[in-house]
Amino acid sequence: DQQVKQNSPSLSVQEGRISILNCDYTNSMFDYFLWYKKYPAEGPTFLISISSIKDKNEDGRFTVFLNKSAKHLSLHIVPSQPGDSAVYFCAAFGAGGTSYGKLTFGQGTILTVHP
Amino acid sequence: GAGVSQTPSNKVTEKGKYVELRCDPISGHTALYWYRQSLGQGPEFLIYFQGTGAADDSGLPNDRFFAVRPEGSVSTLKIQRTERGDSAVYLCASSLSGQIAGELFFGEGSRLTVL
Fold first, then answer.
1. Do A102 and B33 touch (CB under 8 A)?
2. CA-closest candidate to residue A98, choices B64, B5, B48
3. Residue A81 belongs to domain spanning
């Protein structure tokens, strides 16, 4: 049972344009959501997060939007740069969990930004 | 070192053998996590240590998997009687306390191949 789903395995975008990565979840107990970025042969690195009490969080070129009623979140990257090319993972944490580090991850989306 | 260190980076073994994977977390981080990432999937939680004790081992798939952290720093993930399905990248992560979202720092992973 995949509780966090990233239905697009890959996304290709031109440099300077917007990248939109999507994520859906099924568990209504999730109340904190994160995005991680992963380069080949490296571990995932934290990018941005959002609490369920908000619907938007912005950090520089990165903005995460949360639609609780639709159980959907998205990551917007504007403008996209070639260095953003990586695998992006959506992750979620639920209330009552033992630690914020016990995350449920999606399958990942490979973003390629072309110069 | 400055980051989470995992050894070996690659391990090839035969079905039925015993394997140990080591994780050296960031100095001062009390929380340590093991995740497993299979091909085409996101990381999957295995176990969480707070100090020396396993605070949550609900992700360990079966009793062939065991992890220790005897002195509250280095951790070893042990897999007995390996099976081909155990082949994956095993990721270790650490954080300062386990109570602040997004502060998870991942190592580069140990790629295990069971022939």
1. yes
2. B48
3. 4-97+104-114
